[in-house]
Specification:
The protein is mainly alpha-helical. Helix content is 78%, strand content 0%. The chain contains 14 helices and no strands.
Length: 349
Amino acid sequence: MKWTKQRVNNLFFLLGVVTVVVMLLTFDVSFVELWEHICHAGYWLIPIVGVWVIIYGINAWSWWCIIQSNKNPNEHVSFWRVYRLTITGYALNYATPVGGLGGEPYRIMELSKDISKDHAASSVILYAMMHIFAHFWFWFISIFIYLALALIGDLPLNATMCIVLSLIFAVCLLAFYLFSKGYRNGLVVKTVRWIGKVPGLKGWSQRFLANHTETLRKVDEQIASLHKQNKRSFYASLVLEYFSRVVQSAEFFFMLLLFGIDGGGGLGGLTLTYLHSILILSFTSLFANIIGFLPMQLGVQEGGIVLSTAAMGLKPAIGIFESIICRVREIIWIIIGLILMKIPYHPKN
């Protein structure tokens, strides 16, 4: 079994290496232009990359709250262990299609070295749900940020934007309803049954349910128990996940400051620029998740950043620069994640 896990680990590692190579070869600019953009970023590249130390820390804290909420007294997993798996998991998520779910199987496999497999699986699924749930809250609150800025005449509010905001509002409300049902009753068993309705997957779904029904039900019970019995952990995890996106907006904030865009200077101007950064991240992530089945979201994230930046009334060149620097940052953190994967881990008995 140990050898099997090692082989899977090596497979994930190889996937990550291939990802880095592909990302380097698929930049929309030449390496000369790429280097010019990096030089233009200069010392600003340090906070742009470094802020992710904080972002991943907040993500890990959110996941750790979930793990601790339903932990067996005999189980132990440190925050730093969760922090490490958070970084490696997101590094693998950049490499895979279907919305970037490649890191979840790796997290379950590695976390099961510290806690029971059922608990590892439920915590990873719960965190993935919370991560997506927080996305919808981020988009939902961004609607009101945009409207507030439009009311003071800072951003345009035409018919097209009203339709877009209305659609986002409706989708978010639907998502809140579906997530509330999933958190109350669990959703793993129902999801596997739903997959069985897809042509060609009915047989797999039936076999999987027959072999793992009890395990899946335990996972669903743990999902439901977090919302019903551990509301403090539930809301702490949700607030942390939402806050991580607010912090992530600093990445765009630093790049806007690099171009001398500070909303007129002073506390008010910087606050306005940061709100613009939140909206750029919000619209970019929304666009990227709509077409999230593409590996590494190649071209999708870049297009989303350019469109989001243009919606803020900024020049397309700024959006192109932001997209390139974001891709450089991703490559750096994928490499960090791959390095962490190959550092031996020996769980405490």
